[in-house]
Design a protein that fits this description.
The protein is α/β, with parallel strands linked by helices. It is 47% helix and 15% strand. The two termini are 21 Å apart.
């Protein structure tokens, strides 16, 4: 169970990743987190990464791949893993495929949670957050109470500045520009599966489970 979840902001990748983690006991591997972990461990790679980050430079793909190689061999990856934030480019995807040739038991699947852009925009501009405890709400999926006070702590529920329509449209444009090559890459290699993200959370999760269990291509 080795996954990459693709999907535009608002499609529900984070929600589905949490459900997969809980049910199948697999970690969500964030490149940011594993880079920080290597730095904290003061490993040889970690010291290299720390020096690069202190200079304000980007960590190269080669180094990230070495750290991913180390991470996926840890005991908690025995049942699989979900890659978060990597790959982002076709070059990175090619490097990842070369790396995984060392691990013949790993059969990577890329699952796109597809959502029409108008629904993406509605979800993202409908997001609300408690100004005190950070609890998430959404006008479409999980509306806040009529008094606009958080049900957890009573704090004021607000809209984040980066959830306005103009910013959301820009974020979606960037996503499509960066991710379409990945969709083409995995699609051409018969590793891409697609589910309809415009369903209840539970229905999306059931569709993902069908892919994991049977390799069923649910939607072209």
């Amino acid at each position: 169970m080795h996954l990459i979840l693709l999907g535009a902001p608002g499609a529900g990748k984070g929600t589905q990743a949490k459900l997969l983690q809980k049910k199948y006991n697999i970690p969500q591997i964030s490149t940011g987190e594993i880079l920080r972990a290597e730095v904290k461990a003061n490993s040889e790679l970690g010291r290299v990464v720390k020096e690069i980050m202190e200079k304000g430079e980007l960590v190269s793909d080669d180094i990230i791949l070495k750290i991913i190689e180390h991470r996926i061999q840890q005991p908690d990856c025995q049942n699989g893993f979900i890659l978060d934030g990597f790959p982002r480019t076709e070059t990175q995807a090619e490097g990842l495929d070369m790396l995984l040739q060392k691990f013949p038991d790993i059969r990577l699947k890329a699952i796109e949670i597809a959502l029409p852009e108008k629904d993406n925009i509605a979800r993202l501009t409908g997001r609300r957050i408690c100004s005190q405890c950070g609890k998430d709400y959404n006008l479409q999926l999980n509306p806040p109470p009529p008094d606009n006070r958080c049900t957890v702590c009573g704090g004021e529920i607000i809209q984040r500045d980066d959830d306005d329509v103009a910013t959301v449209r820009h974020r979606l444009d960037v996503y499509h520009e960066q991710t379409q090559p990945l969709i083409n890459y995995y699609g051409s290699r018969k590793k891409l599966y697609r589910v309809d993200g415009n369903q209840p959370v539970e229905a999306v999760f059931r569709d993902i489970e069908k892919i994991l269990k049977n390799g069923v291509q649910l939607q072209k």
